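2.7 Reproducibility. Because tokenized structures are sensitive to small changes in the input, we list the exact sequence used for LysR family transcriptional regulator, including any N-terminal residues retained from the expression construct. No trimming or masking was applied before prediction.
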Amino acid sequence: MSGAWDGIEEFVSVARAGSFTGAARSFGASVTHMSRSVSRLEARLGSQLFHRTTRSLSLTEAGRHFFETGSRLIAERDDAIAAMTASSSPRGHLRITCSYTLGEQFIGPILRGYAQEYPEIAITCDLDNDVVDLIRDGYDLAIRTGHLEDSRLVATRVASRAMVTVASPGYLAEHGVPLRIGDLKGHACLMGSNSLWQFARGETFRPEGRWKANSGIMVLEAALEGMGLCQLPRFYAAPHLRTGALREVLSAECPEDEPIWAVYPRPKHLSPKVSTLVERLRAELQGRLSGEDIPATALTG
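Resulting structure tokens (single pass, no recycling of outputs):
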């Protein structure tokens, strides 16, 4: 049985690292071992898995398919072993990804508590505002918002977030307060990652303006400086709404709260390390979003 696995873990490590040297370092083996293991695997499969040049290494089409399959096999093997152990306590390496602000301010504290309670867990948390491929990149769990499309994934709702439309008092004094969604036309809109602003009854508005950033903090700071209107999750704006540095507009047109999901690859056996963390997120995240807003200094320092 061991022969069937020969080279698979080495191949997956090389594909993730993007080089034999990086993979050897993380795998704890020599570069020669990694190279020979992958070569033997290619010979056994009868397919070239990598395009190799003196300067670059990239997956072939066959390599991309086998990487996805191999990553899943390794994860399912490890999860099956964990599920069959005498102890149901979470253990092993947990890789998680989420957006920067959500991760730094809300998910991070939950993960720290989780790691302290379960000393046999090792956690890697990668913050990325882009949607990554969990299966291809070997993640156990992601925190995502909004509509989900990948049928290979399971999603559990762990919280929700409210959206608000805001501007500085100075901007509103100079340019007027929009009273209807249609009034937003002609206003300077500060745009984030979403191409459409959402409102009640499913209405939408496509913002236009001179400022766009894939960082909520950058959008928020532009609003604080009077550059225009923006729509953001309430936890960004809450401390500034309390101090009066921002004012909410169109409050009667607020959309329904946006779901926040814990997303993970569809498993044959859900490992304790994932199931336990998902339950913790369900128990703690909403309270943090609702009651522990980001301090104003954290957002504007």
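The first helix runs from residue 2 to 5.
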